[in-house]
Amino acid sequence: MLWPRTVSRVNLSTRSLPPRRHTHLLVLAYRHSRAMSSLKRKEPPTSASQPKRNGDLTSFFGPPKVTPSGGGKPTSFTSSSTASDAPPLKFDKDKWVASLTEEQRKLLKLEIDTLDPSWLGALKDEVTSPSFLELKRFLQKEIDSGQKIYPPLEDVYSWSRHCPLHKVRVVILGQDPYHGHNQAHGLCFSVRPPTPAPPSLKNIYIAIKKDYPDFSPPPKNSGLLTPWADQGVLLLNTCLTVRAGQANSHANRGWEKFTQKVIDTVVKVRTRGVVFLAWGMPAQKRCEKITGGRHLVLKSVHPSPLSAHKGFFDCGHFKKANEWLESRYGPEGVIDWNLNVQHPIKAPPVQEPVKATASQEKTPEEDGPVTELPEKTDGEKVVQKDEFDGEDDEDAIAAMEEIARQEDQAEATKKTNVESGGPDDGGEPKGTREETKSEATDEKAV
């Protein structure tokens, strides 16, 4: 069609020209038309009409539309994204286990069997570090010597199974596991039924009730927090084990470094945003390096009876956390803090050669780990105590608060000496220890 039209146009305008000139113009017109047609075919497609080469279905339809509200935070979502926005990391567990030495496989048997794969894949370098292997040697010596360890071995990493890495939206930081019978089961502040809620947890219930008047605590005065963990609340203690009846007995053995790595992993991997609830000075020090606007850190005093009256009850953390989560994840991202539903705790099977003391071993007819029950005497019933035995480890909490205060005071004094040109020996200022002891005594008296 192109050639006849061109010839017709040229013929109309060149009838009076000589034959050779006429032919020359026809050839030029034909070449020009072919060149213009070629340019049109080579013109790159626009993004609105055609997807780029190697593009995907998402690039064809364009990015999902997000309607911003005040502050630029997304409030509406066109996709059906879930709160666990990132899939678990790919991790070939069998291949990794095969790469371990015989000693490493023996020392890390508990981690291999009970640490959730999403966490094991992210922490595999940490658990094979010299410091962590030394921690495991220490724990094995404790068990071999007959020491009773809490929580039961198969519950040490229950926080990882209830709350896989790709589902974490809130982190609550604790300090030391409860060191009494039938209490600790791997989630900070949580106790296994029928143990009643400890004082700190009761204060947490009071604070939630102020934020949400329709809040329902667990039935029968329970302190089981697995419903939170199952929704994406990581309930993490600083130390993950303790000797029975001896608060802080496994402190400074290596757990602190490991759990700090857990926190750092959450900060790095959960890029959509996580709320950190840091109650008390030790927990706040763990969050010092969390900066920028990606995550939210909410600070308050510890909910212990020693300090809760100093602002914890009115901190509003539970409502603030949900408001922030909704701005990041949408309505499906908020946490239902109600605890009026009991969830059974079932630990994964732990095979030999992980060792446990006799009081920590399971019997075949039981679903979960068990510690010994009080023995019955003739004509005497075992009665469940109404009050928490051990008074919520108030001595341990006070000791950790005192250590944190001493560190802060020593650091402040050192900074003052440097600025004033005074001696900088890095030592503790005179009177600091006595003053902090006095403060701890005053708190206990409250």
Automatic annotation (TrEMBL):
Subcellular location: Mitochondrion; Nucleus
Principal EC category: hydrolase
Region (Disordered): 36-85, 349-446
Catalytic activity: Hydrolyzes single-stranded DNA or mismatched double-stranded DNA and polynucleotides, releasing free uracil
PROSITE patterns: U_DNA_GLYCOSYLASE
Keyword field: DNA damage, DNA repair, Glycosidase, Hydrolase, Mitochondrion, Nucleus
Segments forming domain Uracil-DNA glycosylase-like: 161-325
Annotated Low complexity bias: 75-84
Catalytic residue positions: 176 (proton acceptor)
GO molecular function: uracil DNA N-glycosylase activity
EC number(s) on file: 3.2.2.27
Biased composition (Basic and acidic residues): 373-387, 402-417, 427-446
Single GO BP term: base-excision repair, AP site formation via deaminated base removal
InterPro entries recorded: UDG_fam1, Ura-DNA_Glyclase_AS, Uracil-DNA_glycosylase-like, Uracil-DNA_glycosylase-like_sf
Keyword Mitochondrion on entry: yes
Transmembrane helix is among the record's keywords: no
GO CC annotation, single: nucleus
Highest taxon listed in the record's lineage: Eukaryota
NCBIfam families: PRK05254.1-1, PRK05254.1-2, PRK05254.1-4, PRK05254.1-5, ung
Family: Belongs to the uracil-DNA glycosylase (UDG) superfamily. UNG family.
Function: Excises uracil residues from the DNA which can arise as a result of misincorporation of dUMP residues by DNA polymerase or due to deamination of cytosine.
PANTHER family with a match to the protein in the record: URACIL-DNA GLYCOSYLASE
Protein's name in the database: Uracil-DNA glycosylase
